Amino acid sequence: MQVATSSRPVACRQEPDLNFAPRFRPFYEAELSGYQAQLDKLVLPGDFQPLTLQPRLHLQACRLRAGGLAVNLESTPIAVRHRPEHAADALQAEFLASFILEGHGIISQNGASLPVETGDIIFRTTALPSEVRMLTDSRLVVIKGSLLNLLGMHLQDISQFTAQRAASALPMVRTAHSCLAHVFFEEANAVSPTSSMFAEQALISLLAAIYTSQALEQLPSAERGPIESWQAITSYLDTHIADSDLSVAAVARALRASNRWIHRLFQMRGIQYGQYVRERRLELARTALEDPTKGHLPVKEIAASCGFQDASHFSRCFQQRFGSPPNKYRAGIHMAS
């Protein structure tokens, strides 16, 4: 059977217009090639190969309120290979957390070949080549979002990202599956936008806890200390990212640590403290500007809620990072919607 090859440049990919969770948008494509084109946009370009003579595919997707996508995919046996030229830029790396609701197969990335069973969660990144082979009729929900949002910046060297399999027997994995069902598959009328947003945040936090616990277990005990310290500080920063005073001294006092300890943790990863804080605040602001429920808020109010006290400074930083001023960026998003 012929393998179809996607040649779209990754930088030019445009995601389809989608509903916000929990309302999936279904895609009705007459041919398998149409589904491949949608998967290229939604997940990552790849070489798509059906593994059965009568392939079928059912695809739905929605946006997450905190940024990212969820893709609900049902299919007969398929293989998808993401080659190096398909990979996203490391600075825009995203994670792919695949909830295996039904089926089994193999997912490979960065030297790891992971068996996949019903109930598992598999973690990959869009910045490295990978391959998915689902050997039976399968149903997956793939959560895609910023790797920065999931793990902070302690994986600055993306080549060190390790694909992980979180087995269905683990209690946190079962909890994550329950949370997934609550966010996407319960009666939509019973979930308000606010509760949906917090449920999504809980799901992402669970995924971060599952991934990091899996990754830490594979490290020698001597290496775990600095990583756990890094996770402690990035967790604090992410929780307090909107605080007006997020100086090194203020964070050190809150964590009962020294300024030197904080600077050392960032230096070990080749990151400046201010760079990390600014990037997290800009990502938070971008998410707020994309949220239609916050369309009535002035940009300066959004800037302040994300920790920027000077609206002009925020506008300059935002334009430098995302290519357009915040007002123009929001107008473009809403026009597209």
In short:
By secondary structure, this protein is of the alpha+beta class. Helices cover 42% and strands 20% of the residues.
Structurally, the number of domains stands at 2
Q: N-to-C SSE series?
A: EHEEEEEEEEEEHEHHHHHHHHH
**Which CATH class of the largest domain is shown?**
Mainly Beta
Q: What is the alpha-carbon Rg in Å?
A: 20 Å
For the record, the CATH architecture of the largest domain stands as: Sandwich
* CATH fold-level topology of the largest domain: Jelly Rolls
Q: How far apart are the termini?
A: 38 Å
Summing up helix and strand content along with how strands pair, one would put the structural category as: alpha+beta
Q: Helix tally?
A: 11
Q: Largest beta sheet, briefly?
A: 7 strands, antiparallel
**What is the CATH superfamily classification of the largest domain?**
Jelly Rolls
**What strand order characterises the main sheet?**
1-3-4-11-6-9-12
Give me the count of strands. Answer: 12
- How helix-rich are the residues, as a percent range? 40-55%
Strand content range? 15-25%
Shape: globular
Unreliable stretches:
1-14, 153-157
Mean pLDDT: 83
Task: Write a concise keyword list for the protein shown above.
Arc Repressor Mutant, subunit A, seven-stranded antiparallel sheet, five-stranded antiparallel sheet, 337 residues, Jelly Rolls, globular, alpha+beta, 12 strands
Provide structural commentary:
The protein is of the alpha+beta class and 337 residues long. It has two domains: 10-217, Sandwich (Jelly Rolls); 222-336, Homeodomain-like (Arc Repressor Mutant, subunit A), CATH 1.10.10. The protein contains eleven helices and twelve strands. The chain has helices at 32-42, 147-151, 171-184, 193-217, 221-239, 248-255, 259-268, 273-290, 299-305, 311-322, 326-336, and strands at 25-27, 47-50, 57-63, 69-75, 78-82, 94-102, 105-109, 112-116, 121-125, 130-134, 138-146, 164-166. The strands form two sheets. A seven-stranded antiparallel β-sheet has the order 1-3-4-11-6-9-12, with helices on both faces. α3 (171-184) packs antiparallel against α4 and α6 (248-255) packs across α7 (259-268). The chain is globular and about 60 Å long.
